[in-house]
Amino acid sequence: MPRTADTLARDEQHWQGIARQFDLEPGPINLENGYFGRMTRTVAEEYQHNIHWVNRSNSVLVRQRFEQLDALQIRGQLAALLGVPDNAVALTRCASDALQSLIRNYNRLQPGDQVLVSDLEYDTVKSAMRWLARQRGVEVIEIVHPHPASFDSLVGAYTNAFQRYPRLRLMPLTYVTHRSGLVMPVQAIAAAAREHGVDIILDGAHALGQIDFDLTELGIAFAGFNLHKWIGAPLSLGFLYIHPERLQDIAPDMGEFHFPSDDVRARTPYSTPNIPALMTLPRVFEEHRAMGGAATKGARLNYLRHTWSEALRELPGVEIMTPQDPRLCCAISALRFTGHSDQQALVNRLLQDYNLFTVVRNGAGFGPCIRITPGLATPLEHMQRLIQAVTELARH
User: Fold this and answer.
1) ∠ at Cα 334 (329, 338), nearest 5°?
2) What is the pLDDT of residues 89-132, one digit of tens each?
């Protein structure tokens, strides 16, 4: 009888087998897996093979095979992974590129309209929205989410903004916030946005591969994603999504002419991509499915996060930045030492005294925090080391 994702999540022997698929460099324990994900050994080997193949064959391979056959098949496999039509996705270098393309080419704004930005968005997205406002003569409305957050407070913050600012037309929404790992209630927020005529551009950079979602159920028409975080692809790969019925609301990028105006691929800059990395994607998708996909990966990562965060949640001198609500949690979480103004000093202590590598994140209304992100190769033992380290540091 097949085991459930939750059962597998607690099976250390199973995940030791998964960990053996990765080559790990000796050194500090990496609890900053949110930056980018490791490739498995077989994916890295295939990537290297593709680099040499493309280098040997040069344009003969690319013109005769990749452009005419491989690229189309890879795009189809990507669309199948998301459960969307082929003509809804276009490959980019990363989620930031995808989101910038969607933001700058959104063509439904008129002078006097308003756009909404929250403190939890990625800084590149914030700056892109402010640029868009200057270019289109629209007003930027900025909100700061209450902390600690709850499902109702997050939805309520947007509902209140929609009611208070009736000229709102567009907003970005980060599915998994990169500072604290808070998972936004996307479906509920998107439903409220539709009622008030507000379009959402979803930042799915940290979501794909660890959250099992359906874009149609979420009610999302525009989104950008990474493939190099939880899917396990080489660096430099992402994509954008546009619901086919909304394609004309995103203009071709700077008059892009290499594809027809009714082709989603015209919504991104045309350039020579990382062809060897793209050629590696079929193996990446195969291994992602073999590991159980987002459901199984997400269950394991949530288990590791839950282990350390709940052990420390009541510890004096420590604040866990994400709530206990399972709807709002994922692999990424964060903490801060409440008796210390300099969180970087504690990051340094975690590394120097306990061999634990973490990172400080700034920029949200709740202030600086220490981001903790286990990975697929992280054993439960590393969470126990983190618990011990934070407990000892909190006493001093």
Assistant:
1) 130
2) 999 999 999 999 999 999 999 999 999 999 999 999 999 999 99
pTM of the full predicted structure? 0.96
User: Token digits for 235?
Assistant: 């660096």
Count CA atoms closer than 13 A to 270's CA, side-chain side: 13
C-alpha dist (Å) from residue 40 to 7, 43, 53, 287, 373: 23, 5, 20, 9, 18
> β-strands 318-320, 333-337: how paired?
antiparallel
H-assigned helices in the chain? 5-9, 12-19, 41-57, 59-61, 71-82, 95-105, 123-136, 151-164, 186-195, 215-218, 275-290, 293-312, 343-354, 380-394
pLDDT, tens digit (0-9, with 9 covering 90-100), for 260-270: 999 999 999 99
Helix axes 123-136, 95-105, angle to 10 degrees: 20
CB neighbours (10 Å) of residue 268?
A: 24
Instruction: Answer for the pair 165, 193: CB distance below 8 angstroms, yes or no.
Output: no
Count other C-beta atoms under 10 Å from residue 269's C-beta.
13
Domains and CATH numbers, the chain: 5-40+293-394 (3.90.1150.10), 49-287 (3.40.640.10)
Evaluate whether 182 touches 162 at the Cβ level (below 8 Å): no
Indicate whether 1 pLDDT > 80.
no
The first and second tokens of residue 211, run together, are: 């959250």
Tokens of 129: 């929205």
pLDDT, tens only, 6-64: 999 999 999 999 999 999 999 999 999 999 999 999 999 999 999 999 999 999 988 98
Place of tokens 């939890």: 120
> What does DSSP assign to residue 66?
I
Please tell me the distance from the alpha carbon of residue 157 to that of residue 395, in angstroms, as a whole number. 36
What would the mean pLDDT of 209-220 be, rounded to a whole number? 97
d(CA 242, CA 85): 10
